[in-house]
């Protein structure tokens, strides 16, 4: 039988199996027994079943849902589960679709009869016959244990009431059990419900296993990037990779921002020093990563939003504009006492940087010089620009106890580059921008 049990209840004895646990009905007269009580309804559930043989003749498999009731010595199949609720069940309540007498029956797991999971087979041979008359293939974990448990006493002709007397009687009956054993665990242990936490752990393991298989099947990120399905973002992208992708040694976003500032912000008081609206800056950051940007639109009229986004771009570079390997050398250069040697040394360091870093530094400091030329109106002197851009354009790979002292030298390095821009950034030393 293949399928899921009815939804009226859930038994946690086995993972992924919903079953209906039914209380015994009140006593009533049974037409099939001389006893004064109706046979107890032991288990009921909605399963899928198919007959594969009947009367010694093979049948074509035809899986159909069926309401299965285990009662007394029989496994009874109904089409309508509603009429067989625990409170109303009686032998004559509705006509069963079919039934299997469990006396002399054999129940066993089977994997060769169906590709479905958790399939077991019930074979019934009437007394005095050698050929099995009915073979029903079923699906569910818990039912097979119940069936095995009840078949042995059925062979001995005992009622199902006496089955529950004691564990000792159960074991004494096992000598006549005509069932192929497939489990080495004690039968009693299978009836112990598992806790909800165990069920949750089992579900987590199942989900984890499926996620692992899904992740392992995913193509590598590099392959997706090569096919153009995934593109690196502008913010947070390595400078060299961004410039290579844009086929220019100065990122397009840097050009857009500086051009907007020079058109309408050079004389703005506190340019680059005053913070813009952080929410609007984040919106601008998002749009840059996903679509073409037009900074002339009205929503970007606040120039401090544009300058704030430009500073954020440099701060989010995985490696700053001044590469980590140059940080210590530049700070040591700034500490030199001889001014001319200091400038020559700084120029040598800049020329040894990768081309995207060189050209972007030249472009940015050229822009900052134009900002500084309007210091009378915007109050952005060389010192103020150094304070803003010192920690923005260069930083150590790891923070240390000298961070405050280093920041002073970072600011001085920016001031020195601005003051000696023409000497450090000679046009012959750089590619055309």
From TrEMBL:
One of its GO terms (cellular component) is cytoplasm. One of its GO terms (biological process) is signal transduction. GO terms for molecular function: GTPase activator activity. Residues 1-47 are annotated as: Disordered. SMART domains: RhoGAP. Residues 29-39 have a biased composition (Polar residues). Pfam families: PH, RhoGAP. Signal peptide: none annotated. It comes from Oncorhynchus kisutch (Coho salmon). The lineage of its organism: Eukaryota, Metazoa, Chordata, Craniata, Vertebrata. Residues 237-425 form the Rho-GAP domain. Keywords: GTPase activation. This is Rho GTPase activating protein 9. InterPro entries: PH-like_dom_sf, PH_domain, Rho-GAP, Rho_GTPase_activation_prot, RhoGAP_dom. Residues 40-123 form the PH domain. CDD domains: PH_ARHGAP9-like, RhoGAP_ARHGAP27_15_12_9. SUPFAM superfamilies: GTPase activation domain, GAP (SSF48350), PH domain-like (SSF50729).
